[in-house]
Amino acid sequence: MVTSYMQLLQRDLGPNLTENQNQYLNFAIDGGRRMSELIQDLLSYSRVSAVEPQRELVDFNEVIKDVQIHLRTAIAESGASVISSDLPKMTADGSQVRQLFQNLVSNAIKYRGESPPVIKVSAKHVDGDWLFSVADNGLGIDPENRQRIFEMFSRIHDRSVPGTGIGLAICQRVVERLGGRIWVESTPGEGSTFYFTIPG
Ligand code: ADP
């Protein structure tokens, strides 16, 4: 409502607005958009915590296909390629798992380097658990920030990249509710690999 009415005001006043007034309205519209994004992300975070996870058979290959459809604009604009190996089927909450992969793949695109993103998703069985990885060739993450990025609101890159700092906190919640853990390994300037486990 706030953003829409600001935009209407901007349109109706159009040529009568001074350059400064137009800029004030743009700031207000942008602020409204960011507030809405923040509320959506906070709701997603609280839903993951509050709602009892569904137990259904999830084909992780289908999840990756869905994620690519959902992120098709970002993938096309950045020239990204998403390469995934044969992934397992297992009992989990499909919508939470989708959100987990969507946040990781979308970050791999957002925090890309000079070359088009190449994102590799794979899974292997290790000591009775599934170990998943989402690897990118993006900006990378300094060692001192590798734990911090999973905290709410923590952002370590250029603030001009849109975001709320909640995505990885959601990923951590989803993985922990499945009984696993999540971490990142990275070479700054070359890329990052996010790992998470899901028990057997
Ligand atoms: P957001 O993307 O909204 O800022 P996230 O919680 O998803 O929030 O990520 C937190 C921070 O971690 C990001 O702001 C970014 O600085 C860093 N980050 C996340 N994913 C990657 C990645 N694949 N490569 C480099 N940095 C990343």
Please characterize this protein's 3D structure.
- By secondary structure, this protein is an alpha+beta fold.
- The strands form 2 sheets. Strands 2-4-5-7-6 form a 5-stranded mixed beta sheet.
- A hairpin with a 2-residue loop joins strand 4 and strand 5 (129-135).
- The chain has 6 helices and 7 strands, in the order ααβααββαββαββ.
- The protein has helices at residues 2-13, 19-50, 60-70, 72-78, 94-110, 167-177; strands at residues 56-59, 81-84, 89-92, 118-126, 129-135, 182-187, 191-199.
- It binds adenosine-5'-diphosphate.
- Residues 103, 107-108, 110-111, 136, 138-139, 141, 149, 154-157, 163-169, 192 line the site of adenosine-5'-diphosphate (ADP).
- Residues 103, 107-108, 110-111, 136, 138-139, 141, 149, 154-157, 163-169, 192 line the site of adenosine-5'-diphosphate.
Descriptors for this entry?
200 residues; alpha+beta; 5-stranded mixed beta sheet; two-stranded antiparallel sheet; 6 helices; 7 strands; 45% helix; 22% strand; globular; binds adenosine-5'-diphosphate
Determine Rg (CA atoms, Å): 19 Å
Low-confidence stretches: none
**By helix and strand content, what is the structural category?**
alpha+beta
- Attached small molecules: adenosine-5'-diphosphate
Give the CA-based shape. globular
What is this entry, summarized?
The protein is of the alpha+beta class. Helix content is 45%, strand content 22%.
